Amino acid sequence: MYFQHSTQIWSDHPELVAGVVAATGLARGTALGPAVDPAIARFTAAAEARLAAGPAAEQPEISAWRRAFSRMGLKPTQYRCAAEALLRRFAREGPLPRIHPLIDLCNAASLGYAIPVAVFDTARITGGVEVRPADGSETYLTFSGESEHPGAGEVVFADAVGRAHARRWTNRQSGHSAVRENTDEVLIVVEALHGSAPVDVPKLTAALADELATLWSVEPKTAILSRDSPRFDFGT
Q1: Sheet strands (E) in 137-220
Q2: pLDDT tens digits along 2-43
Q3: Element (H, E) at 3
Q4: How far apart are CA 10 and CA 157, in angstroms?
Q5: 22: Cα separation from own chain's centroid
Q6: 42, 163, 183, 231: least surrounded by Cβ within 10 Å?
Q7: Distance (Å, whole) CA 27 – CA 13
Q8: Is 236 helix (H, G, I), strand (E, B) or coil?
Q9: Which ranges in 72-222 belong to alpha helices (H)?
């Protein structure tokens, strides 16, 4: 299996820095609910300090995604990157609802770093994933079970059979490959465009890998992707 960004994505967004984590052996996930609390608390405290300094829209990490969305023809106040959506919800409602220990961990990390973090059940992915402009034939499954077809040119996470696992790049993941109670194999993707992304993305990637190794007793495989090294091969 593989993960990569297309050459067009690297050409259009040369400032992109991406980190990836792959791991197998997470099927006992829901039993680890309380164990992730300390990590969530640390990331949440960082988010609180971040928001005390200014609203989500003013964070450099978020501003960079807003500019990228504008370049893609999307209204950044209508379609927000996942990190901004989480920060706005956190500022408005307080602690996020618990869903699954791994999702909760990744959401909290996204809050703390103001960087989008996506996590996929790779057993629900065919072949691999490429972040690329859609050709219009891809199918996207919403969390409510409805099928959508992203328009040509929209940036999606597409697998080898044309299934879109995320729409509008970092805006919205698909329900098809969402982590579930019995999920055993996962791919975590961290992406950023801001000035300190070359420092922040490796730190966040390493932090997530460390938490997986500690809490789930797995051996994560990680990589930092670039235009010169755009592909991550993992699993089978």
Answers
A1: 139-141, 147-148, 155-159, 163-167, 172-173, 185-192
A2: 999 999 999 999 999 999 999 999 986 656 777 999 999 999
A3: strand 2-5
A4: 14
A5: 13
A6: 231
A7: 36
A8: coil
A9: 82-93, 101-113, 197-216
